[in-house]
Amino acid sequence: MLAARCRTADSFLSRAVGLIGRARLADDEGLVITKTNAITMVFMRFGIDAVFIDRGRRVVRIAPRLRPWWPATLAFGADAVVELPAGAAARSGTQVGDVLRFE
């Protein structure tokens, strides 16, 4: 399991803000940002894992342990990204090609 609690950012404003302003994510928490294949870490205060997924929720790229203030990370073919605490993707064993299930 990647996250027990996951919010969705699906409006223009919520996608633009993302996790900016947050001090951290709890170990079981995540944020799904829809309609994007790229994120920026500018203005972020903590590192994250970014799991990029396509429309079928298949993992197309995992960007582990992104550092705050990193300019941009993208994944061709992605339609959304799941932002997680740094190290969460490795701890869960998530790999490119896996299909995520949201409950």
Describe this structure as you would to a colleague.
The protein is mostly beta strands and 103 residues long. It contains two helices and seven strands, in the order E-H-E-E-E-E-E-E-H. It has helices spanning 12-17, 88-92; strands at 5-9, 29-34, 38-39, 48-53, 59-66, 73-74, 80-85. The strands form two sheets. It has a five-stranded mixed beta sheet with strand order 1-2-7-4-5. The chain has a two-stranded antiparallel sheet with strand order 3-6. The longest helix is centred in the N-terminal third of the chain and has 6 residues, at 12-17. The relative contact order is 0.27.
Order of neighbouring strands in the sheet with most strands:
1-2-7-4-5
Helix content: 10-25%
CATH class: Mainly Beta
- Structural class by secondary-structure content: mainly beta
Please write out the topology:
Blueprint: E1 5-9, H1 12-17, E2 29-34, E3 38-39, E4 48-53, E5 59-66, E6 73-74, E7 80-85, H2 88-92
Parallel strand pairs: 1-2
Antiparallel strand pairs: 2-7, 3-6, 4-5, 4-7
Q: Which tags fit this structure?
A:
2 helices, mainly beta, two-stranded antiparallel ribbon, five-stranded mixed sheet, Jelly Rolls, 7 strands, 103 residues
Brief synopsis:
The chain is mainly beta.
